[in-house]
Design a protein that fits this description.
591 residues, mainly beta, 15-stranded parallel beta sheet, 6 helices, 10% helix
Amino acid sequence: MDARKILTCLFATLLLALQARASGEFTIEVKPGEFTIERALQEAREIKRLHMGSDPILQLQPGTYRLTQPIIIRPEDKWLTMEAKGDVVITGGVQITGWRKQGKLWVADVPEWNGRPLEFRQMWVNGRKAVRARDVEDFEQMHRILSMDKAKETLYVPAAAVRKILHAPHAEMVLHEMWCIANLRIKGIKVEGDSAAVTFHNPESHVHFMHPWPSPMVNTDGHNSAFYLTNAKELLDQPGEWYLDAKEQKLYYMPLSGEDLRTAEVEVPALETLLKVEGTPDRPVSNVTIKGVTFRHGTWLRPSLQGHAPLQAGMYMIEAYKLKPLMRRPNGDHNLDNQGWVGRPAAAVEVNCAEDVCFEHCTFEHCASTALDYHTFTQGGYIKGCTFRDIGGSAILAGTFGSEAHEAHIPYRPTDQRVLCSDLLVKDNIIDDAANEDWGCVGIGAGYVRGIRIEHNEISNVSYTGISLGWGWNQQTCAMSDNMVRGNLIHHYARHMYDTAGIYTLGAQPHTFIEENVVRDIFTPGYVHDPEHWFYLYTDEGSSYITVRNNWTPTEKYLKNSCGPGNTWENNGSQVADSIRLAAGITRNQH
């Protein structure tokens, strides 16, 4: 750097310092391609270090900020405000260019990313999500399994279903299992007359066939588990579909009518996590606010690398197996027939070890897994007025669902209560089109939480449940309490999965209230295991000490399954006052 540039930087730093001394805060402007967000955070820390008490404001100027690694907000960044001044996009995506025609297809070379071959499971063309090549265009036309052999870790399917992919090297099966789907990488196919034996790679094969719940359904009045096949060039036969040859690093796309890929904007995701708010239990990040920023194109690679066999709400099983004889449990809980340990899916934005971290009027879109995740050691803060759309997993997750060392059915009672997500406000957010990759995810999922308030959100077009509150499958009191789900509007849910509800609970949660919500308009997919097993409100295993009152639903289609004590149901159904029904959803002037 020459002397003039050095003097310019020193003068700018001195000017900011003088402003900080005068006002108690200082502003740093950030522009795409000129001054990275990471560098701006470093500059802000230096000014704060030299001039104690000054609060930084990072003003992000309009444009697209392309990342090669996550932005990390640290304890040194307390009292930070990061706000968009116009249309600001932070993306983990890579643009694909250099398209050329090849018969009916367009083909492009996929660039390396950060020195390695780029792999991905999603693609967007001019902002529209394209379809990863699959064997059926309409999910109602999915084939169904014929039988299974758990000991041999084999599924038997109609031979006609797999003939196209007999020689496809990396084909996958997406298998419908009651309240989850499993992503299984196919290892081998052996045709035996009218049926075919399909085996799968590990680790997902072993986990999938050992655990009892959820499970592939067989002999259920014609509702054997449905499945579709994907990730084979042989399946690329419909306009709007694409296929990545990861070995050759070539991307193929069959265009819609009138599409010219030479002039289209084609985006694929490369980075799983775009932003991390990361403190420690004893030095949390505190008082950080993110305003008006769009987070886009987070990826999700676990199914490509290890498969994906979830337990519920997107939490994937690391180990799970059936118990013989059953495990006896105290306090009225039924005897347990299985054990399981789960991991947590990736998120585009993660918050850990933080106090009063807030997201206001932000947009999360085109994310392949979870969009926004408040995980462990988080107190206070809010998510207000944000928009979530085209989300592959859950739009919002809050609270731990147990660490990878914690068996899923054991009451969660941590000695250090700070680990809990507590006193988070989730209000006035719009969630539209969530769980479109992992169908078993939810609109808003809260695990072991305390004092969470989920209020006046609108949730629609989700593949499974709208709001899922609690975890643990037992009625013994644990870390959960004092939660509120109020005034939310949930409609057009359960697009793909049943054993569901607009609002669903698990576990003992003293002083928890579910009130003044509206739940209506459920999808009716024909391929679910039990077409009648859906509900507007659903208190599941161990749900205890919960008050459910004044919720408007078209009918009283509710389920109270293996609940514990202390639940109160009052005035739920179509007779609830119009004033409550009309007030549900986003409060006025929030979007």
